[in-house]
């Protein structure tokens, strides 16, 4: 009873129908997920989308579509698909092992073993010698697309044992892809990091403006930083304008450069499990806080984005707090950079005469002061300290992906394609033939196994050989 139920369960889990349905569910789920912002409930994009779609948001949140690729439903479906694929792969592996063994035995067969055991006999014209029978049979098979080799008095057309492994390799590669996707989604991280030219930021959650990380992501193991060494607003190479292009360095925990590279579309920086893509760019303003004694007590780099709606063409990405000795926020400082004009158009880039609009407010957003200052100038705060603008430069917003499964996914995909190609294109066949001399004349004894991609059928081969060797109707021992 238990064994019968277990067999039924295994058959169900290994069925093609279940696998197809799971593939459809995973595929549709993934497509829908691309239309819905991913992230925590408090993320800005998620809250905006939820406000715009109040009717469907409860359903989306309940089934976990905002965390589509780590949700329970998606994980269960992918795990079930993995079980289906594993069972299917094991079936094909057993079949491939049996076929490979048969092919190896066929490859070493001789006239004696074939004479003793065959499944087809074709009567030949008595006037034909054994050598002529084999020659005619070889020409006929070649005409049917089956190229034979002559080994003494034996014709052979036996596929290589590797030809039967394509389907098994394809399914095991699919299983490896599924496992890599599951584990990769649990451990990966992906986020946007804004880094000014000359600035170095640790690869840690605090450095990201937007970050998505798997539930098993362990940041304690990450010991590296990212630096932008230079920025070219109009980088050209190979006669093509690549657009705004930063030069990015990845440093190890000791500050040693691991890799430095220009990053632009179709030219990502890859090192280990880390991949860095270009996302956006803007301006940066370096501020220093100088006390009444002229000593610099703090320094901050503020990022500035371009904006079509802003009057001066830019908006601050964030703000910085000025705090007292106890860490209590006294003031909030934000910076924008008025852009140059060309007619009615604002020119993206550092102005010819760089300057920044420094806006200082109280913690409850009451205006304290706002002033346009040039590099080297400063504004005096109510505390008597001076907030100085040091430099205005560029910054690059980088998309940073840390996913060790990406190389494995590429490798698995390549192996899957190779396996699928073998399964689709490789011929799987056994054709053995020899001549048996008897009192009624010579007969062609043959064994055939035409599993996949054979150029002809058994009935056609029998008919063509019979017509070529004699006018006597061919017969079969099976």
Keywords:
478 residues; five-stranded antiparallel beta sheet; eight-stranded antiparallel beta sheet; alpha+beta; TATA-Binding Protein
Brief account:
With 478 residues, this protein is α+β, with helices and mostly antiparallel strands.
Protein described:
This protein has ten helices and 23 strands. The chain is of the alpha+beta class. It has three domains: 2-92, no CATH class; 109-159 and 427-469, 2-Layer Sandwich (TATA-Binding Protein); 189-402, no CATH class. A hairpin with a 2-residue loop joins strand 22 and strand 23. Helix 2 (16-33) packs across helix 5 (72-107) and helix 8 (166-187) runs antiparallel to helix 9 (405-425). Residues 472-478 have low confidence and may be disordered.
Chart the SSEs and their pairings.
Blueprint: H1 2-13, H2 16-33, H3 44-52, H4 57-63, H5 72-107, H6 111-116, E1 120-123, H7 130-143, E2 149-151, E3 154-158, H8 166-187, E4 189-196, E5 200-202, E6 210-213, E7 224-237, E8 240-252, E9 257-262, E10 269-271, E11 274-290, E12 296-306, E13 314-316, E14 320-323, E15 329-336, E16 341-342, E17 345-346, E18 356-361, E19 367-373, E20 378-380, E21 386-402, H9 405-425, E22 428-438, E23 441-452, H10 458-469
Antiparallel strand pairs: 1-23, 2-3, 3-22, 4-6, 4-21, 5-7, 7-8, 8-9, 10-11, 11-12, 11-21, 12-13, 14-15, 15-18, 16-17, 18-19, 20-21, 22-23
